[in-house]
Write a structure and sequence with these properties.
The chain has 336 residues and is an alpha+beta fold. Helix content is 21%, strand content 31%. β3 and β4 form a beta hairpin.
């Protein structure tokens, strides 16, 4: 690692900045442009080869006799304060905790500190074993490859520590499959009753469209989704609400009806005209928060809003203690 930066422009100028691809091999634009640095560089913006970064953590934050990471920061970041995987994903793993920056658990009896990462088109996993003096960094210029980079990382650990010869289980579980149309149960209201504009103080406003929506905005939204869905050979077509969502790593929202007033929500980026030389339409879901559950609230026959659930991948204190949808939700959107 000869240099590190938070600036995509500087990294690109050096000539070593990789292109990102979807899991299906579609080229993606740069999802970390210079004008986004201030917003997202904190949680995921270090652009580096990472080798010396891991060596620094193995040496408890000291480089050339200089304490680069203060002992208090090192301890708070690497020790666990919350359980994030209360059940081991396999017999070779312990449960996993999370500190202020790293996961921590054990693998075949070896203490492991790790964190996965990525953005559309890129997947990473950085791990180090404090007691063994071993660090592993896996980079893949493919999106949604958390399982693959974890498999590679543990296979490297197996070889480095002479643990075993067969591949080991990933630290990141597979995502649940999207419900198919035959799982759908009739909703309380007609689908078009759930369309309209919704607002949250933290997330802003957006407008859901149903197939019967006739505004110019909805016509474009529905056309863009239709182009992408038509290009899929195995596209599902459950009743769904569609919306634009022009944010950092997503452009649209797809809400697929499951049962009653509940929908499966997926944030996605649509490319109705393809990208690069391949003009075939496609989409790619936002990494990390690609799926959630929405539960709409109906009062006196009218939709008043909906709550989002599943944004933190585990049962929250609000869900345990509150009784209303608005009280239990990770985020609430009022219909306006």
């Amino acid at each position: 690692m000869s240099s590190s930066t938070f600036s995509p422009a500087k990294a690109a100028k050096a000539g070593n900045f990789t292109q990102g691809w979807t899991k299906d091999g579609r080229l993606l634009p740069d999802w970390f442009p210079e004008d986004m640095v201030t917003l997202i560089a904190g949680p995921g913006g270090v652009i580096s080869s990472a080798s010396k970064w891991v060596a620094l953590w193995l040496n408890k934050g000291v480089h050339n006799d200089v304490s680069v990471i203060l002992p208090s920061v090192y301890g708070n970041a690497s020790q666990s304060y919350a359980v994030v995987a209360g059940v081991p994903i396999g017999s070779e793993h312990s449960i996993y905790g999370y500190g202020m920056g790293w996961w921590r658990g054990s693998y075949l009896g070896h203490d492991v500190v790790a964190h996965g990462g990525g953005m559309p088109g890129l997947s990473t996993l950085v791990s180090f074993l404090p007691d063994d003096g071993v660090g592993v960094v896996v980079f893949a210029n493919g999106g949604d490859e958390g399982k693959l980079v974890a498999d590679i990382s543990f296979r490297v650990l197996d070889a480095a520590l002479h643990l075993r010869s067969k591949p080991s289980s990933p630290i990141v579980p597979e995502k649940k499959a999207i419900s198919s149309p035959e799982d759908i149960i009739d909703s309380e209201l007609a689908l078009e009753e759930f369309s309209g504009t919704y607002n949250s103080p933290g997330y802003g406003s957006f407008t859901f469209c149903s197939p019967s929506s006739s505004s110019s905005y909805c016509h474009k939204v529905i056309s863009d989704f239709a182009a992408v869905d038509t290009a899929k050979s195995n596209a599902l077509s459950p009743p769904q609400l569609l919306a634009e969502w022009p944010r950092v790593w997503a452009s649209h929202i797809r809400a697929m009806h499951q049962s009653g007033n509940k929908f499966l929500v997926q944030w996605t980026a649509l490319f109705p005209e393809g990208y690069g030389r391949d003009t075939t339409p496609f989409e790619t879901a936002e990494i990390g928060t690609s799926e959630a559950r929405a539960e709409f609230v109906v009062e006196d026959g009218k939709v008043v809003g909906f709550g989002l659930f599943g944004l933190v991948d585990q049962l929250t204190e609000r869900e345990r203690t509150q009784t209303t949808v608005k009280g239990r939700a990770d985020a609430w959107f009022d219909k306006v």
